[in-house]
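Methods, example record. To illustrate the input and output format used throughout this study, we show the complete record for Pre-rRNA processing protein. The sequence lines were provided to the predictor; the line carrying structure tokens was produced by it.
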Amino acid sequence: MADSETTPFLSAAAGSSGKAPDVQATDEPLETTPLLANSSGAPRYDDGDEDEARQNDTASISSRASHNAPRPARKKSSRWPSVIAMMVLSLFAVAIMFLAFFLPVAIEEYAKQAVVIEPTNLSLVSMTANGIRARIQANFRLDGQRVDNGHVRRVGKATSWLFRTLASEETKVSVYLPELDNVLLGTAAFPPLSVSIVEGQNNEVDFVADLIPGDAAGIRMIANRWLEGKLDTVRVQGKADVQVKAGVIPLGTHSIVESLTLEGDKLPQIPEYNITKINFEEKPMDDDGRKAMAAEVTIKTFNDYPVSVEVPELGFEILVPGCGPSDPSIQVATAKTSPIGVRSHSEVVVEAHGLVKELTKPLTSVCPGSDSSPLDLLMKKYLGNETATVFVRGQQHPAGDTPEWLADILSSITVAVPFPGRSFDNLLREFSLTDVHFKMPDPYADPDEPESNPRVSGSILVLAGLPSEMNFSLNVTDVRARANVFYKRQQLGELNLEEWQKANSTQIPATDKHEAGLKIQSRIEDAPLNVTDADVLTDVIQALLFGGKSVVLDIDALVDIRVQTILGDIIIRDVPAEGKIPVKPLGKGLLGSTEPQVGSIDILSTTTDSISLRALVNLTNPTPYSAYVPFLRIRFENNGTTLGEASAKDLDIQQGNNTDLVVFATWKPTMGGAEGVQRGRNLISEYLSGYNTTITIRTHRDSIPTQPLLGEALSRLNFTMAAPKLRFPDKKKDQDTHFIRDATFHLWSSTASFTLVNPLKHHTLYLDYVNATALYNHTEPIGTIEYDLPFAAPPGDSVTPRLPVDWSMDSVGYGKLTEALGGRMKLDAKAIVGVRLGKWTERLWYIGHGIGANVRL
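The corresponding predicted structure is encoded as:
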């Protein structure tokens, strides 16, 4: 059936050629042969139209043949190659995807997580004109346990096992700062490297690389931000074209770009250091004899990093801050370091040598709105045991073999270096104040003026210790100070020396027991002492008067010193100083030993109840101190009752005898009320009678107008002293205090006359009445006198009128009087006398003993 179906296709095909095929001679495959022959191998003899028709007929026959052919046999012979081809293509595509995408990513991830690099040493081989040649030593290995993803870990291990080694050609790595306009930080040239990438196998890498710095501006920016603590994060980006081969298989050239972000707190910090030695000395600067100040500093620190460097000699500039934060720093010195050998994990010793040639004007000029210069501010912190700040900057053109590129980088970087101060607590060994002279406040001075306070003058002797690092000559020419004065840890007042006081100094060489010293001598004049606590002043005066031993005052001062050095005059301000001033006691017998005596007395004015006078007083000052009193007002009392007041101006009390001191006084017992009137009457009567009378002088709030606290402080003390003795003209030894110097009794006329002594040189006393009794042996009456007619007692000696006497005829005393007729006897007297001086009147009583009396008929 099959044959019959195919025969027409074959006949038609044969008919077209004019030949009949031999059916029996052909087997089954001939069915398709004419089709294949006609479609591919038969030559063409007709034109194109005929060929086109033949092609159409052939296509039709082939279509029918294909439709009528047995289907199972046809499918089995043609589908397997296609399936296999598709599978191979699919596997090939998957392999391409695996090799091109997944495998590189997995290997890259594996390399990032599994790689372990342990730097063991970084050492500087040499410095070249372009950079640094460094030797880098490290351990390199792959640790698959560090990879979190299991698939990545297996792929990585397989790959590293397959290739086993990885090698690179010479490579140049450039490092950029992408956040800062892609500034080139530097480049590194690495030699060819070959490492084993077998899992867990360690590689000791040891190679020399050339490191070349990039843009100096970028390096300076990063360095300055890091030094200022403003570098929170920094992102660096490395770029390199790396030629890699695995084993012997070249892997081509790969462009690698990697970024790394570093946190500021994870960056290396400036190590802590210790200044173990600092020494200043004079050093010749040239052949002309000029000298400079040289400084030698030794600094020790510890290198915590596995880095070894041989640092060549470097030059630096030393600067100090200007007046304000925005002002430029001021260069004060140049310095250079000796070559430094830095070893990993070892102590590092840096020796620096500085030189100060001169003190520039910006350094010593006073800052606007201040009384201090930049040098003053630096010295204040240093001497006050505070940490000062200096700046260190590389020199642009240093001496030595410093490469130009290194000098360029260092000169653009400024490092703030804390410079620790030192304590001068034990600087003052001795402090003494001698030849002390006090001045009381000037009552006419403005309260804000220094003259409104008590002032102190004296000779200061200070022995100060010189720090061992100061090995140069200096001379103190002037000093001034602001000091707080304490007594038993309580502040007494403030002592201010605002004006410069001349001084001179002598250096004392060091001994085995003491370091070098400086002896400073100065004379302070009129240093104001502002009393801030009246109670403390009272305690001091009491201790001086009654303590019997020296009083120690503590001084806590800030001293300004003008010093001559080889660099010129330097003012060192606010040097902290502590010392003690021993004040010698005034002595328990001070008030008694002053021995005041009243000389000339002038009555200035009188009222019915007061007398104003001017007196010249002589006294002895037994203390080692002198004093000047421009004005002082005091009250005088007796038994706690005010009787009057006195004042003095321009008193200059020196040591020893002081004569003719002018004192003004007002006798006014009514200030003490009725009790004062009675107390005043008794006091004068006792004084005239020769009793040992005392008066108490006391200050008050208005004693020193400009210093009320001082007056109040002194008012708490009772200065009780013997009443001043009057100077009598032509006095006799046994008549020192007798106002009645002599008497004459006339028995026949029953009268008596007396020789009186008036100590007032220019004023006459009047006795308005007399009621007196003469006694023998203190008790036996001789006679009485009652006389109410006024009579005068002019200055000096004078004789009274004959006063009538009523004799006591029956008394023993009168008998003794008659027995002494024509001779002389001693008698006592009691009297009540009315006294008048100008407008002032008083009724006094008088008791006299041992009065010499002449007896006449």
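Annotations derived from this record:
Confidence is low (pLDDT under 50) at residues 1-69, 97-101.
The longest strand covers residues 490-508.
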